[in-house]
Amino acid sequence: MDRLIRKFRRHLLAWLHRSRSGSVSFVRQLSYKEIKRATDDFQRTIYSSSRGAAYRAKFQDGGVSLVKEVSAIDEEEEIFYREVQLLGRLHHRHLLALKGFSMGHKRLLVFDNIENGSLKDHLNDPLKTPLDWRTRLQIANGVVAALEYLFLFNEPPMYHVSISSSNIMLDENFTAKLSDVGLLNYSGNCIMAPHPSCSKDCMDQECGNIIFQLGVLILELVTGQSSEMEGSDLIQWIQESRFRNSIHKMIDPDLGNNYDSRELKNLLNVAKLCIKPRDKPAFSIPQLLRYLQTKVDIHTLQN
């Protein structure tokens, strides 16, 4: 099956290259002053990662955007422009769309549409409207669908992806949007995929990290508990051989009894499979998506 997927991917990528060669979404260059004003002098921090901080921004058009400071890119402008070009080509309903950038005092990327803030806000803030079970399933499905798109339907296929409730944004319809995405390797003046001689090891390690993060995220969606410090308490719980006996104690009280028990158990099985040694993942991203669609009725939840 995986061989068939790889063959299909080659043909699809060739078709995409022919059909959209040279096409990039319009990405506007914004002034540093404009972004500084929209972020209230960079005071509205949403999260920080190895690639830099992210800020909430409100521009004059009234839209709520996410501004990312890119700190992991080399000093050469050509590399940053290449990053902008490649991010501008990403098109998926579960990825934040790049709409602008700035080359001022900081290198900044501007993404649309975070009307409802981060997933973490809605899980941890008692003043926010609780997320129902259907929405949580949609978020899990959306994150995995975005990963499949990034790994299978892009060239180069390897992207740096960080998954946490802090950097998953929600639009006005509570559709999940991955926000911490970038190219994995930087070499010279070009952004490149891993060298062929080590691509298998790099793929295993990066996929292992991403799948592990996804498992922690699922636990957070189910329990409503924080995943700070990689969710050590949640991980210890899911790894226990008799964790099923304590499921009722771990479910987010905001859910009440408004969830499907079969879907809950299957989703926790996915989390348990994800929380494995990171260097050798037990399954691929496409396999994980197929399992979710088979065991959890989230394929019927699309708007």
TrEMBL record:
Pfam family for this entry, one: PK_Tyr_Ser-Thr
Keywords: ATP-binding, Kinase, Nucleotide-binding, Transferase
Gene3D superfamilies noted in UniProt: Phosphorylase Kinase, domain 1 (3.30.200.20), Transferase(Phosphotransferase) domain 1 (1.10.510.10)
Keyword Kinase: yes
GO terms assigned for molecular function: ATP binding; protein kinase activity
Start and end residues of each Protein kinase domain: 40-303
GO CC list: plasma membrane
Name this protein carries in UniProt: Kinase family protein
